[in-house]
Amino acid sequence: MRRVRGVIHPIAETAKDAKLIRGNSKLARDSEILPDQAVRLLDDLTRIVARACSAILEISPSVPAAIKADQSPVTAADVASETVILEALAKLLPKIPVVSEEKMSSQAAPVLDTSFFLVDPLDGTREFIAGRDEFTVNIAIVTGGTPILGIVAAPRRKQLWRGVVGARAEKMRLLGDNADEARPIRTRRWPTQSAIALVSRSHLDPASEAFVQRLEPVTRSASGSSIKFCQIAEGSADVYPRLATTCEWDIAAGHAVVAAAGGVVAGPDGGDLTFGHADKNFRVPGFVAWGDPLKATSPGT
Predict the structure, then answer these.
(1) For the whole model, what pTM was predicted?
(2) How far, in Å, are 23, 200, 240 from residue 134 at the CA level?
(3) Could you report the per-residue pLDDT of 170-209, keeping only the tens digit for each?
(4) Element (DSSP H or E) covering residue 151
(5) Omega into 217 within 30° of 0, i.e. cis?
(6) How does pLDDT run across 47-100, given as a tens digit for each residue?
(7) Exposure check for the chain: N or C terminus, fewer CB within 10 A?
(8) What DSSP state is assigned to residue 283?
(9) DSSP classification of residue 280
(10) How far is CA 46 from CA 40, 180, 203, in A?
């Protein structure tokens, strides 16, 4: 993949690109992706996410949604985005398993013994249907049960956040099927006043509300989708609790972006979250995303 003035360009059929593809094929054979290898995949995966965003924007929110068995909505935009992502990942890294929200509603989970992708092709479907701009596209790489790479894009906002844990975290501008203007992002220290707590617009639960109350004085800000993780990562908010059951694909990419930017995402008990639990239908019991790791260790102070 080539860069000109910071723009990611589509893969061309050149000797250099063929070498890149061979390198990615070796990763696929090894079936384990480490952080230094994940960095080399960032641009390819960013382009895939950007293409999925374009596919979503071609579909009107007014198209009727279907209701899945878990009572959540699914639209043609969810399906279109997932189709773009799955087809592209199958070409890029054909031996790396993919766990994707819509795919898992109709197929058995793949064997997850090393690295795998976690994909939410459209997080915030309710926000999409409502005509808001808070929905996102999410891709994560999970290795050893931990998200090491995450990409989150907000198609209508034309923004993309990405990160590799231990390497870098960036915010970019979506530009058609590409992204440019990468700039580093970093979480912030817990402010002495005017801390911002993010809460779910559609899924605020009593336990999360009680958690925020214990942190007061804080300013609440409600929004949908994994965009809240990105606000933590870029230092425009401080904490995001969701102490109710959610799905791994909802949070894996945001988890990686926050961690890459210097924050931490913990379970309800303060312990580490692990991913890849097919036996639990890829559910997690909840989480808290913190911008300041020191505050995470002493939330009541």
Answers:
(1) 0.89
(2) 36, 11, 15
(3) 999 999 899 999 999 999 999 988 899 999 887 778 999 9
(4) strand 146-154
(5) yes
(6) 999 999 999 999 999 887 788 877 788 999 999 999 999 999 999 999 999 999
(7) C
(8) E
(9) G
(10) 11, 10, 28
